Amino acid sequence: MNIGIIVASTRPNRFGGQIGDWVMNEAKKRSAAHYTLLDLMEINLPFLDEPKLPAQGDYEHESTKQWAKMIGDQDGFLIVTCEYNHSAPGSLKNALDTLFHEWQNKPVSFVGYGAMGGTRAIEDLTRITTNLDMIPQNSSGKGTHIMLFQNLDENGKFSANAHHVASLAKTLDNLEKWTSILKEVRPKLYT
């Protein structure tokens, strides 16, 4: 099964790249799924430039077609998100809103970071992903929250502690479980 790790922030001096790399390195140690890093900074999606609604699935632009293939190839997602003004960054909202069917009936978990560990961004993303027919997996302590002010050295370098490693392992365990279940039943859900 394939799980995409989406790094949400596209700001030049972001911490998301460091955290996304850490998540990817931890995920590579596992054998239950194949993980792919999908960094929105590198993908550089235009802002909602398709003339037709995403639910129609009739994409005109090559950038959207490529994004649809990347997302369509995944069976589940782990979103690494910061928190901007008590919500997720616009780059992530744009990436989610650009497609529709490619997200459906796939689980999604979260790694949040920031002053509050991305908690409020994840709350918003739970509503957004639910409306895309995704299955969010962040309840009951199954998400990973990183308080940046406690985990950056004097050079601004992120360093995961034992709690982060254990929390991410639990998040990935749960995500892999639901990815496996939903991959098997997904073809039957809309037939």
- Characterize the largest beta sheet: strand count, sense, and whether it forms a barrel: 6 strands, parallel
Q: Write the CATH architecture name.
A: 3-Layer(aba) Sandwich
CATH fold annotation: Rossmann fold
Low-confidence residue ranges: none
Helix content: 40-55%
Structural class estimated from helices and strands: alpha/beta
CATH class equals Alpha Beta
- Topology as H/E string? EHEHHEHEHEEH
Between the first and last Cα atoms, what is the distance in angstroms?
21 Å
How many domains make up the 3D coordinates?
1
Q: CATH superfamily membership, which one?
A: Flavodoxin domain
Mean pLDDT: 93
Strand content: 15-25%
Estimated radius of gyration: 16 Å
Protein architecture, described:
This protein has 191 residues and is α/β, with parallel strands linked by helices. It has one domain: Flavodoxin domain (Rossmann fold, 3-Layer(aba) Sandwich). It has six helices and six strands, in the order βαβααβαβαββα. Strands 1, 2, 3, 4, 5 and 6 form a six-stranded parallel β-sheet that branches. The model has no long low-confidence stretch (mean pLDDT 93).
Key words describing this protein structure:
17% strand; 6 helices; globular; Rossmann fold; alpha/beta; 191 residues
Q: In short, what is this structure?
A:
This protein has 191 residues and is α/β, with parallel strands linked by helices. The protein has helices spanning 16-28, 40-43, 62-72, 90-97, 119-131, 162-189, and strands spanning 2-7, 34-39, 76-81, 107-114, 135-136, 144-147. The chain contains 6 helices and 6 strands, in the order βαβααβαβαββα.
